[in-house]
Amino acid sequence: MSDMQWTVLCTTAEVLPGERHVAWLGDTPVLVVNHDGDFYALEDRCSHEDFELSPGPYDADAGTIECVLHGARFDVRTGEPLCPPAYSAVQTFPVMVQDGLIYVSDPR
C-alpha cells in the first residue's frame, strides 16, 4: 500500500458489477459503485440539497446516479454534476482493491 491512509469499506463480493453499496468512512456515508468491474467511491450526499444519492437510480451504461429529490445526475467516476439543479461536484475518494477488499482514502 502507498503512504496514504487507507480504510476498508467493504468486500468486492458485496458490490457485484452494476451494483452499489453504502458504507461509512468515519461519520461520512460513502457510496461504492462497481461500474464495469471498476470500483468508485463518492460521498452519499447530493451537492445540491444534501440528500443521500444511494436510493436514486443508477444507470450502469452511462455510469451515472440520479438524486431522487430533484433529479440532479452525477458521474460516479468523477462526482461531476451532469445537469441542474446541482452545479458542484460530489466528493470522491481514491479506491484501492486488494485481496478482495475495497479500500478508500480520505483526501479531505
UniProtKB/TrEMBL annotation:
Stretches assigned to the Rieske domain: 7-104
GO molecular function, one term: dioxygenase activity
Keyword check for Iron-sulfur: yes
Keywords (A to Z) from UniProt: 2Fe-2S, Dioxygenase, Iron, Iron-sulfur, Metal-binding, Oxidoreductase
SUPFAM superfamilies: ISP domain
InterPro entries attached to this UniProt entry: Rieske_2Fe-2S (IPR017941), Rieske_2Fe-2S_sf (IPR036922)
Official protein name in the record: 3-phenylpropionate/trans-cinnamate dioxygenase ferredoxin subunit
